[in-house]
């Protein structure tokens, strides 16, 4: 093959690439915007497992706000600026190094808090939580847990479980770290297992369910959870 043939082939390739880009550039620009939005601004996250019942169910798709606390470099977890601090009661998405996976938990203790648990009863900074039983059956008790500046539902097992897993502390939450729990207290691997959560591992906050598919019922939609608030 002579130089002239090689030049023609290169020119045809270049011409075809230009034509391909011209015909598809709107699609690629739209795709980039979608990926950028999902990476840096907001996204959907799937809930798997029972650790956040009754607030979140297996099969829920939740809206997560990635600008709740930080502005990060797109496609990375590198923070450019801190916008606000996580608050007690926030439901957060955690990129946990100790767990080796993403977790969805609720913040119970913020930096400087003294956390104490005795048989699932929480005491924060010497102030015991108030509890109200909302419902109960042979397997579980649903309670309203009232902590300083927050109230939410939680689930306790009615069956025998180790009392060791129901007690913790007292301990002081270190600077720039957080104490998190699953709302399903007897079925959650959280700060009682993985210890405190560093602020840099908190990647987003969630406050609502977008839609939900019931894995126990042929993945049919749960209509009552469409655009539902997590803490309703």
| Overall tally of structural domains | 2
What is the total tally of β strands?
A: 18
Class from secondary-structure proportions: alpha+beta
- Corresponding CATH architecture of the largest domain: Ribbon
CATH topology of the largest domain: Umud Fragment, subunit A
Rounded radius of gyration (Å) = 24 Å
Main CATH class of the largest domain: Mainly Beta
Distance separating the two termini? 73 Å
Low-confidence stretches: none
State the helix count: 2
Helicity range: 10-25%
The ordered string of helix (H) and strand (E) elements is HEEEEEEEEEEEEEEHEEEE
Tell me about the largest β-sheet. 9 strands, antiparallel
Q: What's the pLDDT, averaged over the residues?
A: 90
Net shape: elongated
CATH superfamily name of the largest domain?
Umud Fragment, subunit A
Beta-strand portion reads 35-45%
Relevant terms:
232 residues; alpha+beta; Umud Fragment, subunit A; 2 domains; nine-stranded antiparallel beta sheet; four-stranded antiparallel beta sheet; 2 helices; 18 strands; 41% strand
Characterization of the model:
This protein is α+β, with helices and mostly antiparallel strands and 232 residues long. It has 2 domains: 1-40; 41-229, Umud Fragment, subunit A (Ribbon). The chain is 18% helix and 41% strand. It contains 2 helices and 18 strands. The strands form 4 sheets. Strands 1, 2, 5, 6, 14, 15, 16, 17 and 18 form a 9-stranded antiparallel beta sheet that branches. The termini are far apart.
Secondary structure layout:
Blueprint: H1 3-40, E1 42-46, E2 60-65, E3 70-72, E4 79-82, E5 91-96, E6 101-109, E7 114-118, E8 121-124, E9 127-128, E10 130-136, E11 140-147, E12 150-157, E13 168-172, E14 177-181, H2 191-194, E15 197-198, E16 202-214, E17 220-221, E18 228-229
Antiparallel strand pairs: 1-2, 2-16, 3-4, 5-6, 5-16, 6-14, 7-8, 7-13, 8-9, 10-11, 11-12, 14-15, 16-17, 16-18
């Amino acid at each position: 093959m002579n130089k002239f043939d090689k030049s023609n082939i290169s020119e045809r390739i270049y011409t075809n690439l230009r034509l391909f880009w011209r015909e598809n550039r709107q699609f690629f620009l739209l795709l980039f915007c979608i990926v950028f939005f999902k990476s840096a601004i907001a996204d959907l996250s799937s809930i798997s497992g029972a650790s956040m019942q009754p607030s979140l169910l297996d099969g829920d798709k939740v809206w997560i706000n990635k600008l709740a606390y930080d502005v990060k470099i797109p496609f990375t977890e590198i923070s450019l600026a801190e916008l606000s601090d996580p608050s007690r009661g926030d439901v957060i998405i955690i990129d946990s190094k100790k767990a080796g996976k993403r977790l969805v938990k609720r913040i119970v203790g913020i930096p400087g808090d003294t956390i104490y648990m005795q048989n699932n009863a929480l005491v924060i900074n010497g102030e015991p939580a108030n509890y109200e039983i909302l419902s109960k059956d042979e397997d579980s008790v649903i309670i309203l847990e009232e902590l300083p500046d927050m109230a939410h539902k939680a689930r306790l097992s009615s069956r025998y479980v180790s009392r060791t897993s129901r007690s913790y502390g007292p301990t002081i939450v270190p600077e720039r770290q957080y104490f998190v729990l699953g709302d399903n207290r007897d079925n959650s691997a959280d700060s009682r297992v993985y210890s405190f959560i560093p602020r840099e591992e908190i990647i987003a906050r969630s406050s609502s369910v977008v839609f939900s598919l019931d894995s126990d019922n042929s993945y049919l939609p749960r209509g009552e959870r469409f655009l539902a608030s997590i803490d309703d």
